[in-house]
Amino acid sequence: SELIRGFLLSGMPCPSSCPPGLLALMAPGLALMATFSLPSQAGDRRTLPVEKPPGVKGRTLILLDVNTKSPVRIISENFLSLQLDPSIIHDGWLDFLSSRRLVTLARGLAPAFLRFAGKRTDFLQFHNVKNPAKSRGGPGPDYYLKNYEDDIVRSDIALDKQKGCKIAQHPDIMLELQREKAAQMHLVLLKEQFSNTYSNLTLTARSLDKLYNFADCSGLHLIFALNALRRNPNNSWNSSNALSLLKYSASKKYNISWELGNEPNNYRTLIGRSVNGSQLGKDYTQLRSLLQLIRTYSRAHLYGPNIGRPRKNVIAFLEGFMKVAGGTVDAVTWQHYYIDGRVAKVTDFLKTRLLDTLSDQIRKIQKVVNTYTPGKKIWLEGVGTTSGGGMNNLSDSYAAGFLWLNTLGLLANQGIDVVVRHSFLDHGHNHLVDQNFNPLPDYWLSLLYKRLIGPKVLAIHVAGLQRKPRPGRVIRDKLRIYAHCTSYHNHNYVRGSITLYIINLHRSRKKIKLAGTLRDKTVHQYLLQPYGKDGLHSKLVQLNGQPLAMVDDGTLPELKPRPLRAGRTLVIPPLTMSFYVVKNVNALACRYR
C-alpha cells in the first residue's frame, strides 16, 4: 500500500515478520475521522503494543497520509464565528465597538456570524429612542462617559474611512474611564450570574445602530436573539417588543438573522416558571410568521432553540421543540462549556478525557435532529472553555487553546456546520480580546485557523511505532491531528494544498513523517507557542519564535510561515499547537470550491 511504501521510504527497516498489530495499524483503510486520537469511550479499541524495530530507542515515529480524493465533510465558510453578550450594554463596552482597533481585530476573523446573545438575552428590552437623557448623577465614570457621548458621535463621523462604515479613535481618557466603569460593573454582573438573578437591560435604537455598524464594518453577519421571557398570562410568547425592534431594523434595512431566547431549558431557575419544548416551538412558529409579514425579513434565517448541555431533560425539551418547529428553523443550536471556571486548574486543559466529552453530546443532538428533520444543519453556539466567566490567567491563557483548537477539529469532523465562540469581547476571562483591546492567545489561534483552514474536511491515515503502553493508558490520544483543504481565501497557496493542524499534549516532542500523497512536498510550518516566563499561563504567544502583536490599531501582523524542506520529518514540540500547510499536493478534493 501507499502507507507501507511510505514507511519503507522513511529509512526505518521493518522486521521480516512485522507484528500483526503493526500490520493492522498500517492498513490503508484506517481512517480516524481526521483525528489521530481515540475516543475515551472506546476502551476496547486501545492501541496494541508493538515491538520496536532496531534503531528506535523509545521514540515515536508517526506516518501520516491524507485522503485527497474527496472530503468527508464540508462545513460553512462561517464555521468559526463569534458571540457578543448583551452585558456589554450594562458595562458600557457597546459604545466602544466603533473603535478602529476592535473593528480591525473583528475583520481578521471574517467571514463569520456575530451572535448577539447570552444570559441577559431574556432580560433585554428594546426602546426606539435615539438620544436618551444624559445622566444627572454625580461625578463618576458613568457620568463623564455619558457626557462625552456627543464627542463619540462626532469622532465616528469625522473618521468615517469607508462608505457607510463609522470608525472612531476614542481619546485615552475615555478608555480609562470605561475600564474603570467596567471594573465596577464586573462585580455586579458576576453577582447576578452566580445568584441567577438578572436585572433588565435597555437596548436603544442608537445602541442597535452601533451594534449593526460594528458587524457590518467588520464583515460579520449579525444574528440577534430576541427576549423569549416576555410572556402572556397563558404562557405564550408576547411579541410586542420584538415587533418594535423588527420594524425599526427593517426601516434601516439591516440584514439580520434571528433567534428567540437563550438556554430556554433553564427558565424555571430564572423566573420560577418553565417553558417546555413544544411551547417554545409554537413561539418560534409565531416568530416566523412575524418575519414573513415584514418584507425585509420575509426570507430571514431563524436559528434555535439554543438549549444547554444535552442531559436527559434537555433532550426531552429538544424533542418537543423539533416536533413542532423542526422545519421552522434553518439550523438547530445548542451550547457547551467544558469546565466550571471557578474551580479550573491548568492541568484540566491537558486532560484527554475532558477534550472528548463533546463527542457524546454531539451524538445525542444528532440523534434527535436526524429523527425529526434528517439532514438539518446543527450549530454549537455559545461554546467556551469555562463557565462562570472564566478564570484570570487560565481561560484567557495559552493553555485554554488546547480545548479550543480540539473543539474546532472535533466539530468539523463530526459535521457540525458552525461553532460560535463566546465571547469576542466581554467581562470575565473567556473572551478573545481583553479590555485593553489586546488580542489574547485564543484570538491568534482563531486568526491562524481562519487564514489557513478551508471548509472541506479530509480523512487522515496513520501508522506509528510507539513504546509499550502502561496498563490502562493510551498514548495516542494525546496527539491529535486534523486535516482540511487550505483556505481558498489565502492567496499564498494554490488550490489543491492541504493544511494539517496538530495538538501535542505530550510532555515530549513527537515526530511525524509525511507519506503517500504528502511525501516529498514542501511544507510551511506555523508553530504557536507561549511567549514569556509564564509558560502555559501566558497571555502572549509567539509564531515560529516571533512574538505576535498588532502593528497598529488598523493593522494585524503578517503571519509568516517557516518553510521546511521537502521530505523533512515534522518535529512537534511538547505541549504545543501547530499548523502545517503541505504545498502543491494538487489534491482533487481541494481544487474546486
UniProtKB/TrEMBL annotation:
One of its GO terms (molecular function) is hydrolase activity, acting on glycosyl bonds. GO terms for biological process: extracellular matrix organization. It holds the Pfam family Glyco_hydro_79n. GO terms for cellular component: extracellular matrix; extracellular space; membrane. SUPFAM superfamilies: (Trans)glycosidases. InterPro entries: GH, Glyco_hydro_79. Belongs to the glycosyl hydrolase 79 family. This is HPSE2 protein. The gene is Hpse2.
